[in-house]
């Protein structure tokens, strides 16, 4: 427990490695300040709702096409306006407002079934409703005026974002795709360092540090590009950005395959000279090319195309010299030739990306072919289908929605009875802090409470020094810009300036310059209620969730290998679209399992199973996928009858073993013993008619790679077995062995 508290304390103070969103902050400040100034000058009713409408609507704008942004901002504005009207009408009647809060907040929290954008809209609609309940109007007319004021503030924010200060529609997509090439460059540089004889566990560290991060970067770019292209007629830049995204994905897969082949080489193959020196140079040049692609993708104007000079030729020349001296075995030569092939293919993909990036700012080229794979928005077939799928207590979304609804309702009742002064600060804290999982809720509660205390102290100091409304308005503009600008860096820092902003706004509106302590106390109460609701209402430990996530990742590994084996048995190369989909599904499933494991570590736990087997399962799930990626890079496999027979036997046994392993992890049982893969592949077999011998004689490189795949499976099987045998362990073990 002490270790977890220390980790949370570090996380509270941790800054993300990004720049502040200065433009977004200034625009959000204008969205608040201008309606407030106009409302105060003209003495318009609903001044608070003008500011809230401008701020919330500006906050929703995440970039993308004008159509998608207008739809998101407009939908949020309408939902918030409805919340204001309904909340203002029922706020005077506790017997009605309390049960309606339960229904309203639960329903809007359930909007997360439709994705992240809907979740943001639902959060704003729920928050606006509890504010309106705490600040009820005097009748229907005033409720309608409040709703109209919010819509007016929202309309100003939309005009500001879409007309007066528009962000270039493709700028977010450009930055997201450029981030993919930046991640590829980092991976190539790290691979060049590890290839120069680093420690044995460096290969495993490379996988753990890079693979998940790059896959997440690719998925963010995919989502951003989908949102950007939605509703747009112009296709030139969008299609070229899609080509760049798919090429970055292909380069990542090429580097994964290259890393697996390089690791299998072991120590230097020759005392005279190590041909991997040429590989190291090529990888560094590849990283430089990827950095060029970052620059070309981000910039708006045309640029001269770089001319990289690297591929697999230098390695082939080194091999020719070593081969002439008789210093290479047949298998070593085959592996190094495969490395040269992978480098050449990597260069070909980089050339495609460079050509596309240099044409990115210009108009579409006549006759240019569209990309093979289109980005399709992951839309649901109907509005009712996701609702039906999640109307069960087994759904995390449903459990979270009920938890938030009940806790917020309790907060409304407690605050209305015991804390009438700005009681909505309690409920806003509850809605902001509560997350679907215990660990993130605990972290956000710490950030919210500590940030509020610091911001409240600053507000007390400011209120004691300045009470001139004009100076206060200028200060509010600055603090509003700061709070939005700092969201990407650290949520706690955002909370400091958000507290300062809204305390000063409340003091300006009421003339009461002593509201900072009220904000602190109400936030503390809201934080306690949020934690209580998270711990005691329909909580499901991550120890219950992790096995299903891990089983999904193992089954995704199985499906990836299944795409390969089915194509081999037909004597064909695996289809690219099937491989791409299988790789993506595997990457996302593994990220989900790793995220679940991190939540497991962050949960306050009084008992726990041994963690080393779980870490090994995660590590070798990625190792298994990396070997499959190497196998997928083969353009063909030997297709003699004996080789196909050996591959069919091996694939059938591997499929059954992986399915049994996933089922064992899911249901908490020991996996069955592995089949005799050595007999299937011909390991240590001397009988001339043994079926596996054909693979070793006719395809030594393929047999070596399949042996490597089997070692990853053995490590997974051992971890699943140890999971059922090992006693509980309170802390993570050291990194798993990397002898795969």
Give me some keywords for this one:
740 residues; mainly alpha; 27 helices; 73% helix; disordered C terminus
What would your notes on this structure say?
This protein is mainly α. 73% of the residues lie in helices and 0% in strands. It is built from 27 helices and no strands. The chain has helices at 2-12, 22-42, 47-60, 66-90, 94-109, 116-134, 140-164, 171-194, 202-229, 236-265, 276-298, 313-324, 330-358, 384-390, 396-418, 424-433, 438-465, 469-485, 491-510, 516-536, 542-569, 576-602, 612-632, 641-667, 677-681, 693-698, 700-725. Helix 8 packs antiparallel against helix 9 (202-229). The chain is elongated and about 90 Å long. The two termini are 34 Å apart. The model is unreliable at 363-380, 683-694 and 728-740 (pLDDT under 50).
| Helix content bin | over 70%
Briefly note the structural class of the backbone.
mainly alpha
Low-confidence stretches: 363-380, 683-694, 728-740
Number of helices: 27
Order of helical and strand elements: HHHHHHHHHHHHHHHHHHHHHHHHHHH
**Estimated share of beta-strand residues:** under 5%
- The rough form would be described as elongated
Estimate the mean pLDDT confidence: 79
| Main sheet characteristics | none
Task: Give the C-alpha Rg.
Answer: 29 Å
| DSSP strand tally | 0
What is the CA-CA span between the terminal residues? 34 Å
Membrane topology: Multi-pass membrane protein
Main location: membrane
Transmembrane segments: 28-52, 72-93, 105-135, 141-165, 404-425, 445-466, 473-506, 518-538
Organism: Corallococcus soli
